[in-house]
Design goal:
453 residues, 13 helices, 33% helix
């Protein structure tokens, strides 16, 4: 059974497409290796991503089809980065977060960026550029922030905040910036940075292979618990100062050594053992997986919490997919006892997902076909193309019949109807938090509990 509502799945190697095979068989086109590689990627994209997707509106599909035909004609005459950018822009026309490119890591300028609000800050640098840490990006090769933001948002689908989040991860990819028209060359660029002191620095930076020990923010000795141990998908800790346990989920997946449901059961048992009244559930980096693994636990969890205990759920722009579903089930079950703290979640309450990830080896991206609807606003009452486990009981779905029967037999259906998941208490990250090693969400929760005394 495939994981549902996921942004993290195993990729398959693509096979040459029918279009390429026919052209080679007919001998009608003398194809260079470059054109063959690009046409293979485009054939896989068309057949296995673009055509099956239900995320495009009718007008967006027409526009995307026109651009794809033009791209196919130009295959073999484009750089790798130019092909990548145009494929991603065609995908982004669906305006659906899961209809986005997921980029492979490649060498770039020796900086790493974090988006805070709609601004980009240096939070990683090689030792020779460590003085830039905490600085705000102003321009690249004379292209200011508005132009950079517009170019970056064209690469991926979904709400603006998540488009910016994705763009922040490729702001050092000079090949992509060049193909987007905001860097003069794919080898080097001039980054203009405003330092925390207010001083403006302009520095020419070339492509560099990243090292594991580069300086970063927050500094190692000031990193809040929430940002530590980033390779661990789920973990918990005691927080006696909040009369709570803190539970962090970075994904909805089972690990070889531990299942998600078992972890949550253990965390709840530890809360009871310690006598804590509250739960802080940190979902700010829950990028998805299979929400069915913990759906029933989330629905039952509020009944286990003693009155007047509350759930304080931390959310942010990286909270997407199965992470959103988990919060929605908890909120519906817990009502006012579930307090959302932080920033808005990263996606809308209606989106398209599902399908196996497809790899385009030449372009260096993976994409999802997005074949089934998720409607958390109205319980899929008006749609027949929803994923079966959130569709109306007995109603039609877009899930293939054999898979739907297995899902229905194993999990049953539980439609979601929730007006919004807006934060009850705003607690956005700032660059000052990164510099000082503070967690604004945890501070906001502490303030709430203090005022309640």
């Amino acid at each position: 059974m495939q994981s549902s509502c996921t942004l993290a799945a195993a990729a398959r190697f693509a096979r040459p497409g029918l279009m390429v095979a026919l052209a080679l068989a007919s001998g009608a086109v003398a194809q260079s290796p470059e054109r063959q590689n690009q046409m293979q990627d485009l054939a896989v994209f068309r057949r296995e991503v673009f055509e099956p997707s239900r995320a495009y509106s009718p007008s967006a599909r027409i526009k995307a089809e026109q651009r794809l035909v033009k791209l196919e004609r130009r295959a073999g005459h484009l750089s790798e980065a130019a092909l990548t950018v145009e494929i991603c822009r065609i995908t982004a026309l669906a305006d659906n977060l899961h209809s986005s490119c997921f980029f492979s890591r490649k060498a770039g300028a020796p900086l790493g960026f974090t988006v805070l609000g709609d601004r980009f800050f240096v939070t990683l640098a090689d030792p020779s550029n460590a003085d830039l840490l905490g600085g705000e990006l102003i321009a690249v090769d004379g292209h200011g922030l508005p132009a950079l933001r517009t170019a970056g948002r064209s690469l991926t689908g979904g709400p603006a905040a998540h488009r910016d989040l994705t763009f922040s991860t490729v702001l050092n990819r000079l090949d992509l910036l060049n193909a987007l028209g905001v860097a003069d060359t794919p080898q080097s660029a001039r980054y203009r940075i405003r330092l925390p002191s207010g001083r403006i620095v302009e520095r020419s930076l070339a492509v560099t292979v990243r090292e594991a020990d580069w300086p970063s923010l927050p500094a190692a000795d000031r990193t809040p618990w929430a940002l530590q141990d980033r390779a661990t998908i789920y973990r918990w800790r005691d927080a006696p100062e909040l009369d709570a346990v803190v539970v962090q989920l970075r994904g909805n997946v089972d690990r070889p050594e531990r299942k998600l449901h078992d972890f949550l059961t253990e965390a709840e048992a530890n809360r009871k053992r310690l006598g804590r009244t509250n739960v802080v559930l940190d979902m700010r980096w829950d990028t998805g997986g299979n929400f069915l693994l913990n759906r029933d636990f989330m629905r039952a969890w509020p009944s286990a919490l003693p009155t007047p205990g509350r759930f304080f759920v931390l959310t942010g722009p990286a909270t997407v997919s199965a992470g959103i579903a988990s919060i929605a089930y908890l909120k519906l079950a817990g009502g006012d006892r579930v307090v959302l703290v932080g920033e808005p979640v990263g996606d809308r309450l209606m989106f398209f997902s599902e399908g196996d990830f497809k790899e385009l080896p030449y372009a260096g991206v993976m994409l999802l076909p997005t074949t089934e609807r998720y409607d958390f606003r109205s319980g899929c009452r008006s749609y027949s193309d929803c994923f079966t486990s959130i569709a109306q009981p007995g109603g039609p779905t877009a899930t293939p019949l054999a898979e739907a029967a297995e899902y229905d037999r194993t999990y049953g259906r539980a439609p979601l109807e929730i007006a919004n998941l807006d934060p009850d208490v705003a607690a956005p990250w700032t660059i000052r938090d990164y510099l000082d090693g503070q967690d604004p969400g945890m501070k906001a929760i502490a303030d709430l509990l203090q005022r309640a005394k």
